[in-house]
Amino acid sequence: MGDIMKKTILTGLKPTGSLTLGNYIGSISQMVKMQDEYKSYLFVADMHAITVPNDREELHKNIKEFIALYLACGIDPTKNVIYLQSDVEYIPAISWLLECNTYYGELSRMIQFKEKSKKNANFSVGLLTYPVLMATDILAVDADYVPVGIDQKQHVELTRDIAIRFNNKYGDTFKIPEPLVTEVGTKIMDLVDPSKKMSKTEENPKGVIGLLDDISVARKKIMSATTDSEMCVKYDPENKPGISNLINIYASLTGETIIDVEEKFKNSNYGEFKRSIADVVCNFLEKIQERYNEIVDSEELEELLKNGASEVRELAKVKFEMMKKSIGLYR
Ligand code: AMP
Fold it and tell me: Which domain holds residue 129?
């Protein structure tokens, strides 16, 4: 199927924390599966990352690290337009024009804003206007669909409201996007406390397998993962959250079913079971780290980001000029 026929999707990656095995299994591997079906825009949402306080060095390091890891995990640069949000100067320009067509009431009602602004009384205005920047990312490239988790669905609905309002006021300018609630990938839990999600911003690194973890460190983390006293490899997330989480990891990385995994290890003790998981995880990490190291500082990556930004800049420029004219901002 040629690109002309394909619907477009847009995905932003917020470059905070360090990508984990949970990110890969729950999200990146799903994106890899979807990339044949859609024309995909994939960008590092670095301007979104600064709505809350950030460490300058970490932000800078993460920008390239995230893209290189996505590529190493199988994101194909010939099927995705990959770019850095802050490389496209028309994005904040469009965002301002949209902000002036968005109501304070709409933004202050956003659930994420309400939750995040409670955490720090001195929050930035950017935290409030963040959904308009997200609307800009989507509308600037005429995305058909925006794959989102439930927490971001409200922002896509707001994007639709903003776009419909603008179109009604100024004439047809924006395609109206739809949220795409994707098949939820397996949720991977923390290895130390399997009652909580493995998170890229978790403070205790022992429960989290980072995609760039040293192989021997990753192996140790699996070997000391919390289990139970039953000594029986059985999938039961409620009563055996630790073992069930390990089964999920094994099944996700090997493509085997949970029943296959239970059957395979029915006579194994937890030590043997963990060793097999550690082998699978370490092989996986070795493979992606090898590719990561080849591309992270390469010309290839620079070129790719440059081309991506230039393709999106063209699209965004057309939108910006169109909007300015509609609003009356021209000589
Ligand atoms: P976050 O790391 O919270 O910014 O999430 C980025 C994407 O990775 C989202 O689509 C999450 O649902 C997914 N994700 C993050 N952590 C996990 C996890 N432990 N298990 C499954 N999916 C995850």
Answer: 2-181+298-327
Are 11 and 25 in a shared domain? yes
- Tell me the pLDDT tens digit for each residue of 53-75: 889 999 999 999 999 999 999 99
- Residue 197 counted as domain residue: no
Assign 3-class secondary structure to 216-277: HHHHHHHHCCCCCCCCCCCCCCCCCHHHHHHHHHHHHHHCCCHHHHHHHCCCCCHHHHHHHH
Q: Whose CA is nearest to atom 9 of ligand 1?
A: 27
Which atom of ligand 1 is nearest to 197's Cα? 19
Q: Are residues 164 and 49 in the same domain?
A: yes
The dihedral built from the CA positions of residue 49, 109, 327 and 329, taken in this order, carries a sign that is negative
Evaluate whether residue 186 is within a structural domain: no
| Below-70 pLDDT ranges, the chain | 1-4, 183-184
Binding pocket residue ranges, ligand 1, CB within 6 Å: 14, 22-23, 25-27, 149, 185, 187-188, 197-200
| Distance, C-alpha 56 to centroid of its chain | 20
Q: Which is the closest atom of ligand 1 to the Cα of 198?
A: 19
Extract the tokens encoding 320: 């910006």
- 22 with 149, same domain: the answer is yes
CA max distance for the chain: 79
| Res 138: pLDDT | 98
